[in-house]
Amino acid sequence: MEIIRAFFLLLVLVLVLNPVKISSEDGLLFLDYYKETCPLAEEIVSRNVEIAVLKDPRMAASLLRLHFHDCFVMGCDASVLLDNYGDIISEKQAVPNLNSLRGFEVIDEIKYILEEACPLTVSCADILAMAARDAVALREGPRWEVWLGRKDSLKASFDGANQFIPAPNSSLDSLIANFNQQGLDIKDLVALSGSHTFGKARCLSFRQRVYDINIEEKYDRYKRYRTFRRILRSICPNSGRDHAIAPLDFSTPAKFDNLYYINILQGKGLLGSDNVLLTEDHEGEIRKLVWAFASNQELFFTSFAYSVVKMGNINVLTGNEGEIRKNCRFINP
User: Alpha helices, DSSP H only, in the chain?
Assistant: First the structure.
């Protein structure tokens, strides 16, 4: 078993050290893309993410989530940052994002400083990718190399945001199908679900999970779930307090670690979409991955880094596609 685990870890390490390249007719993503044109770009992003997270530790999870919600709608093109303007209906108004996504002001501040240093050089899409990496590292998570050179989209997709961002009460089949649409597989699904190891969620997102009791919980002789459910009900009543929040991981809510997987093995995932990784896994493949990540944090970190790099390369715009926005909230005049 140890030999198999070591081999799997080595395999994932190789994949991380040789990240996925995305090609287009016009170009590729590169490491050190801004080395000549804006040499301080990554340092500027890192410093300002650090300041934001020091002010508000929850912001780390919010910045990672921004990157996720951006990439799952038309690709990693900063469409999620666009405000309503002209014919553009902002993705911020979509159900998964409304009164939920945070961190836009942090991205605005970083973009302002970058425009002062290197006008019309660093894309908003690249800022999101770098900010996500730095946010995770600041909360004791892994750090990975970010491939850069994305361009910003000229449009948003309100309908896409409603359709493609996984809901907090998704079934396992829905999650798998949703990730497959983005070119992500089951290993990516399980690894990226680990982002729920930090941050918070609104009552609106986990109410159904609290008040719908499955068969296993109904006949819970040892009361394994009742205390946790009682805590959640004290935060989130059956009606009202929609915007009350609870930590996704009650054990280490501000730290990026592997306790998320231990939580769901104990039936203590906050969201319904967390718990279905086990309760609806009839083949047992996902359960094996959950156990592997629960027992080996280094393996989780390596797998997460690989999957988030892969996600960050979904349908990127490069070369003559898209633009470099001056203001992340609006396309250029």
Answer: 2-17, 41-55, 59-71, 104-117, 124-138, 158-164, 172-181, 186-193, 203-211, 215-218, 226-235, 259-265, 272-279, 285-295, 297-311
Question: In whole angstroms, what is the distance from residue 304 CA to residue 299 CA?
Answer: 8
Gyration radius of the chain over CA positions: 20
CA dihedral (25, 30, 32, 34) in degrees, to 10, reads 20
Nearest to 161 by CA among 89, 108, 61: 89
Q: Nearest 5°: phi and psi at 151?
A: -105, 165
Amino acid at 100: S
Determine contact, residues 166/174, Cβ cutoff 8 Å.
yes
Rounded CA separation 304/290 (Å): 12
Tens-place pLDDT, residues 278-297: 999 999 999 999 999 999 99
CB 272 within 8 A of CB 170: yes
Residue 4 has phi, psi (to 5 degrees) of -65, -45
User: Which of 125, 112, 118, 135 is closest to 56 using CA atoms?
Assistant: 135
Instruction: Please say whether the beta carbons of 296 and 51 come within 8 A.
Output: no
Please report, for residues 245, 262, 326, the alpha-carbon distance to residue 128 in angstroms, rounded to integers and kept in the order given: 24, 29, 15
Catalytic residues: 69
From residue 269, alpha-carbon distances to 81, 202, 256 in Å are 29, 14, 15
Q: If DSSP codes are grouped into helix, strand and coil, which group holds residue 247?
A: strand
Sequence letter at residue 154: L
Contacts of 216 (CB under 8 A, 6+ apart): 267, 279
> What sign does the dihedral 106-109-115-120 (CA atoms) show?
positive
Nearest to 123 by CA among 114, 132, 135, 113: 114
User: Tokens for 30?
Assistant: 């590169």
Q: Using DSSP, state whether 184 is helix, strand or coil.
A: coil
Tens-place pLDDT, residues 232-269: 999 999 988 989 999 999 999 999 999 999 999 998 99
Distance of CA 133 to the CA centre of its chain: 10
